[in-house]
Design a protein that fits this description.
This protein is an alpha+beta fold. Helices cover 35% and strands 20% of the residues. It contains three helices and three strands, in the order αββαβα. The radius of gyration is 12 Å and the shape is globular. The termini are far apart.
């Protein structure tokens, strides 16, 4: 079931495009991992550069879309490889 939910989340967030490239964050490899445990999901994002100004919007959009997946109650976003990763993670996961 968790693999099915992971695929459903991937499908739900695939329409989110990198605003600079116009390509899906899934296709670009920004989405590094999706893990589901019960009704909890954890999504790891890694921007294409450590100063990406769009990663906060991408993270927020990812969280919203993933939380709208049936069977998912809570989504934790983990941004890695960004100069402001700690601050972004704290803000997104409040």
């Amino acid at each position: 079931m968790s693999e099915e939910l992971e695929n459903t989340i991937k499908d739900a967030i695939s329409p989110i495009n990198d605003p600079h490239m116009g390509i899906s964050i899934v296709e670009m490899g920004i989405v590094q991992n999706i893990a589901v445990d019960g009704d909890q999901a954890e999504i790891t994002l890694k921007p294409t550069n450590p100063g990406c100004m769009s990663i906060t919007r991408i993270a927020a959009d990812t969280k919203i879309r993933a939380e709208n997946v049936e069977g998912i109650e809570n989504v934790k976003i983990i941004v890695e490889g960004h100069a402001m990763a700690d601050s972004i993670n704290e803000m997104i996961n409040r």
